[in-house]
Design goal:
Number of helices: 14
Strand order of the largest sheet: 2-1-5-6-10-9
Radius of gyration: 21 Å
Length: 318
């Protein structure tokens, strides 16, 4: 992990805030030696904030924390389809965004971002139960109800609480690299990475055992990325036909099997670039991409950079 500047994280607790939604960013970005983040939990003003599900929060900071933060998380809250947050809160969110802070909503926190107008004309998502309400209340927002999270650069939104973890790990990957994100996922006992394009829930028409079988197949493949992995190989391991495997895999992950394998190989290459001194050619062979030229091609296509530039970005002291 590089010697990075400290990132300042504010978690904005609104009336009726959902406990899991509040806890996720506070825990993922917990202040510790290995994590260059400082977290402040805040409300519209300091003091006791009534939360959802019978809990309340005692917050030390008011809206001044949004003027301090580099990243502002807005957890989900009660009755988002009926009540907008106070004007002072919306103004503080707008001001934070204007000076360059990233705004990230978990679940129904997307309604608060939408109320600022910052989501107008942008893609966004929220908990599947509220997607239609978000469309109706904020028709200028391009609501995508079939994804885990949406990254629009300076504004990010996610679906239910579990996808808030995916969003936080996505931000970690961008800030600190794959190794740090994977380390945080292990600490949380969470999946290392689920793409934002993955569906919020598996359609009812997919038998549950099939979904479980595919999870095992993905884990099996992750330990064999250096080996030849074809659609037939994966389907055979999952004990279904290639046609069925391909169709169900897209429904479950948002990627074709070969797209998923390629991204997994690039992710492994990223971690090796961050944590080892192996050459680009050696890493390409390790992850099943054969040659350095092949690795560079897919790195540029998927990440918009080269392996060497990536290594410089995420190498300590450089």
């Amino acid at each position: 992990m590089p010697a990075a500047r400290l990132h300042r994280v504010a978690v904005l607790v609104l009336d009726g805030a959902k406990p899991l939604d509040v806890g996720i960013p506070a825990q993922v970005f917990t202040t510790r030696a290995s994590m260059p983040y400082e977290v402040r939990v805040c409300g519209a003003e300091p003091g006791l904030v009534a939360g959802g599900d019978g809990l309340a929060y005692s917050v030390q900071h008011g809206l001044e924390a949004l003027a301090w933060a580099d990243i502002v998380f807005v957890p989900g809250y009660r009755h988002p389809d009926r009540d907008d947050p106070p004007r002072a809160v919306l103004g503080a969110l707008t001001a934070a965004h204007a000076r360059g802070a990233r705004l990230a909503a978990i679940s129904t926190g997307a309604f608060a971002l939408a109320a600022t107008g910052l989501l107008d004309g942008r893609r966004a998502t929220t908990h599947w139960h509220y997607t239609r309400a978000l469309m109706a209340r904020h028709p200028l927002v391009r609501v995508d109800e079939n994804v885990l999270f949406v990254d629009e650069g300076s504004v990010l939104t996610s679906a239910g609480a579990a996808s808030g973890i995916d969003l936080c790990l996505h931000i970690l990957r961008a800030d600190l690299g794959v190794a740090a994100s994977n380390h945080a996922a292990r600490r949380l006992v969470a999946a290392p990475y689920r793409s934002g394009g993955q569906a919020q829930y598996v359609p009812r028409s997919v038998p549950e055992p099939l979904g479980e079988r595919f999870a095992v197949t993905r884990e099996w493949a992750l330990h064999r990325l250096g080996d030849p992995l074809t659609l037939d190989t994966l389907a055979r391991q999952a004990e279904v036909s290639p046609r069925t495997f391909s169709r169900r895999f897209v429904e479950e992950t948002g990627y074709t099997p070969m797209q998923w394998v390629m991204r997994a190989r690039v992710d492994l290459a990223r971690e090796l670039l961050e944590r080892s001194e192996r050459s680009v050619e050696q890493i390409a062979d390790d992850v099943g991409l054969g040659t350095g030229a092949n690795l560079r091609l897919h790195f540029q296509r998927i990440l918009g950079t080269t392996p060497s530039e990536y290594r410089r970005t995420f190498t300590r002291g450089e």
